[in-house]
Amino acid sequence: MTTFNLPDLGEGLREAEIIQWHVAQGDHVVADQPLVSVETEKAVVEIPSPSSARVARICAKIGDRIKVGAPLVEFEEGQRADTGTVVGDIAGAGLPSTVEGEAEAQGRRGSDIKANPAVRALARGLDIDLSTVRPTGPDGTVTSQDVREAAAALARSSPPDPLKGVRRAMALNMMRAGAEVVPATVSDDADIDAWPNDEDVTIRLIRAIVAGCRAAPMLNAWYDGQKMERRLHANVDLGVAVDTGDGLFVPILRNVDARDAVDLRRGLEAMKADVRARTVPLKELRGQTITLSNFGMFAGRYASLALVPPQVAIVGAGRIAPRVVAIDGKAAVHRILPLSLTFDHRAVTGGEAARFLAAMIADLEKGE
User: Fold this and answer.
1) Which letter does DSSP use for residue 90 in this model?
2) Model pTM greater than 0.85?
C-alpha cells in the first residue's frame, strides 16, 4: 500500500476539514482527478490524485479535521503515488510569533486572579475559567458561590461551538491585528448630493481610494514590523470585505487604479459569485495593498476597523443618509457619506492619513 497524505495547502495552513469525497474505496483514479474537497481557514480546496492508482482505503470521513501530513487515501501498490504535493503557495507555517505570545500571556494572566485553593479546585472540577467569573468577594476575590453561578450560567447557554473554516481564519487574523498593529482612525464626511440617483456607490468608493493612494502613496503599502521596513506599491490591489453567514471574506480586485467602471463592476460581480460559491482561489485572498469595508450598507456611520498586517490602511464607508448642512450660511439637507480611515501609526503619520482622506472626499464630492 502507498499512503497519500494531506498535502501542504500553502499560506501556513496547518489543517483542513473534509467536505466531500469524489471517489470511493475500490475506484480507479487517474493523475489529477479530483479526490476530495476540503475546507481550510481560507476557502474550499479541491485536492487531485497525485497519480493513477486504485483506492484501497479512505482514511478520513466527511466532517473530520485533519492535519497537514495526515493520511488521506491508501492506494494499492502499482504506479507509485506521491506522498504529498503542494497545493497553493507555500508560506511560513504556524501562527505569527506575536499571536503565540499573546496566547501564552492569556494563560499567565490566570495567576493574577484572586481565589483561594479551594475555589480554584472547584473551578477546575466544574471546568470554569476563572478569568470569566465576576468576583464578588472582598478586594475582588472570586468566591465559591461566584464559581457556582458561573457554572449555572454556562449550563443555561448553548454548548461550545468551535470556530472553523472562515470564522477561524477571521479570529486568527484579528488576533494578529490586535497583537501587531498600532491603529489610529480619522473620520470625515463626503457631501454626495451632486451624485445622480443611480450612481454606483462601490465604484465611486474604489475610484476615491485610488485618488487617495495617488495623493498619499504611503497608505498603499506594506509594513514589516520586525524589520521596520515599509514597501510602497505601484498598483492598487484592493481587498473588499464581503460579509457572509460563514464569516468574513476579503477577496481582492487587482489593479483597480488601471480599470474603468465597467470592468470594475464586472470584476465585483464575479468576485461576489465566487464568494457565494466558496470557489475563491487562495491566491485571490492574499496580497491586498489596502482594504475597503462598506459596512454602511447595513448600518453605522463611523468605525475603528481592524487592520490586518502587512497592510497599513483600511477604509470604512458608513451609511449614506440625508443630513442638515450649511450651504452659503443657510441650512440645507444633503446626502452625506461618512468615511473612516484606520491606519497603522507605525508606518503612517496623521498628516499623511488626513491627506489621503481629503483626496478621497474631493473625488467623491464631484458630480460625476
Assistant:
1) -
2) no
